[in-house]
Amino acid sequence: MTDGLWKSGTKKLLSDLQGGAISSADLQKHCLEQSRLVQDQTQAFYEVFDLEGSPGASSSSCAAPLMGAPVAVKDFIFIKDKECSAGSAMLEKFVAPYNATCVARLLKGGASLVGRTSMDEFGMGSSNENSVRGPVRNPWDLTKAPGGSSGGSAAAVASGAVPFALGTDTGGSVRQPASFCGITGFKPSYGRVSRFGVISFASSLDQVGTFAMDAYGCARLLENISGEDHRDPTTSRIPPFAFHESEKEFWRGKKVAVPDFLVGAEMDAPVKAAFEDFQNWLCSNGAVVSSVSMPLLEYSLAVYYLICTSEASSNLSRYDGVHLGFGGEKNISLNRVIQSARSQGFGDEVKRRILLGTFALSAGYRDAFFNKAAKVRRLLKESYEATFESYDFVLTPTSLETAFALGDRAKDPIKMYNSDICTIGPSLAGLPAISFPVKTTGMPVGMQLVAPYMEDLKLLQAVDNFQEASDGYRPQIATLMNSNSAEVKHG
Amino acid sequence: MAQEFDIDILSKLAMLELQDDEKASLENSLNEILKFFEKLQTVDTNSVEPLFNINEESSIIRKDEVERIVTRDEVLRSAPQRSDDCYRINRVVGKE
Q1: B20, part of any domain
Q2: pLDDT of A58-109, one tens digit each?
Q3: How many CB pairs under 8 A join A and B?
Q4: Is A87 helix (H, G, I), strand (E, B) or coil?
Q5: Cβ distance of A301 and B95 shorter than 8 Å
Q6: What is the pLDDT, as a whole number, of residue A61?
Q7: pLDDT level of residue A1 (50, 70, 90 thresholds)
Q8: Which residue(s) pair with A445 in the sheet?
Q9: Is B70 domain-assigned?
């Protein structure tokens, strides 16, 4: 059903678009149809646009860098005049009044937008089960979670409906679903991409990330949306990169650090096997892989869940039922309007995190919790910097497990939080990080590479080199059948 | 350090109105999560400055030029209650 015109990779797709072998109008129509087809089985989208209502569809030209490339957008990112729900009942009727900077840049670069993808409510979740409209299903096995919070975007790409998608990544919300869905997901350095027009979850951590089958696709999308933005003062003044492939022998002499907490760590057998295989691949291609002590990583989950919940409790205080959200009850006081709007509008996980953050910031506790976490965060960042003095990359699996069954974690928030153990460190340190699939049997497995701050280009080149190598691994598209089962295939 | 959440105070601060069953379930999970945070107290952070933002450049300013991004109508389109060009709110003076 979803054959994917980009089975040979996004480089060929973009070159076919540029050369006219594929017309952008045909590709857009194809992606809109495929998105509707996969929707029944995956629930990846909140809305698939009509051709007439698809921003960018009619104006793409071969001269533009993205040449009509169809992109799905996580429903956390403003598309002017389209609804933007953040996966929440609170914003059910909200219509974005302007384009996010990253969307405006995508459109300027010639992309067309296919639809709005499902997500965990306000970015809070690792399974896309916290969406007010119900869970997204993993295209490789419809009984399993696609990961979260950008699970809809990951499922849309993995099912072959669209070649590109935008997500957001705060503690792993692009990388982990990329890993669970067998595609490539990139979180840039903090400040690489403007957050203007992106709904805030945790402002010192949030970044717009890109999904594609491969690193080349992630890179081409990213180079179009990166760069300083005067509307977001947290963006970096370092100029954006233009992607170019690395030399063939990229990995020769590269030094890769594997944090020693992974030695002996409990991980699913396929993840362990794939992790060892990838390290062997690196060594056979001339890299040096070493186990490195990074003891502070043990604290990263606690630091993350203190900082992100504190920032979220502040960011979500704007949802008051007066400017945004419910309202409408006539005979109650303003305070009751606000309380009842927030109580009805937010789901359990959001309430839990708001309460946690409120506690961590409250008088008498702020020093012991929030400030303490911020100090340990600095130590964590310095620990990565010290590692990068002797190493080029840090390598871990993206997740210690493959996609879990839907419903498995719903009642156990701590078990859910623990699934972020590998992705959180780079988020806290603001570092670029990428998840990419490696050869396995059964459900997909992703590896994560992390690079120094603002070395996004080098990181993308690294994975592109692996994916292009004859003994590397080319990502596959999941084949959805007409029935409820999916055929799990790997090349 | 053993801390306990007072869910009533916290929910008031957070402007959340919780039902009794919600309170019980949230209180349980929050107390579990608190234990998870206690290990941070063992990290020596003497003379370490907190890190609040990755890009620590301060006073980033832009030109003081007005830029029209939206119209009033576009913003008010999503207002829960609207009265002409204003957000409409319920009474703020008087009894709760």
Answers
A1: yes
A2: 665 556 778 889 999 999 999 999 999 999 999 998 999 999 999 999 999 9
A3: 174
A4: coil
A5: no
A6: 57
A7: very low
A8: A438
A9: no
Distance CA A62, CA A396 (A): 39
Residues 6+ apart with CB under 8 A from A117: A44, A45, A46, A72, A73, A74, A75, A150, A152, A153, A155, A156, A165, A167
Query: Which region among A226-240, A365-379, B2-16 has the lowest average model confidence (pLDDT)?
Result: B2-16
Give the range of the structural domain holding residue A462, as residue numbers without chain letter.
2-252+389-484
The pTM of this model reads 0.95
Report the domain count for chain B: 1
| Residue given tokens 């400030």 in the structure block | A371
- Tokens at residue A388, please? 């990068």
Burial class (CB in 10 A: 0-12, 13-18, 19+), B50: middle
User: Which of B42, B55, B70 is best to mutate for the A interface (most A CBs within 10 A)?
Assistant: B55
Chain A residues with CB-CB distance to B16 below 8 A: 339, 342-343, 346, 351, 354-355
Which residues span the domain enclosing B16? 7-42
Which residues, 6+ apart, have CB-to-CB distance to A157 below 8 Å?
A72, A163, A164, A165, A181, A183, A211, A212, A213
CATH of the domain at A137: 3.90.1300.10
Report the domain count for chain A: 1
Q: Are B13 and A362 in contact (CB under 8 A)?
A: yes
| Residue A274, in any domain of the structure | no
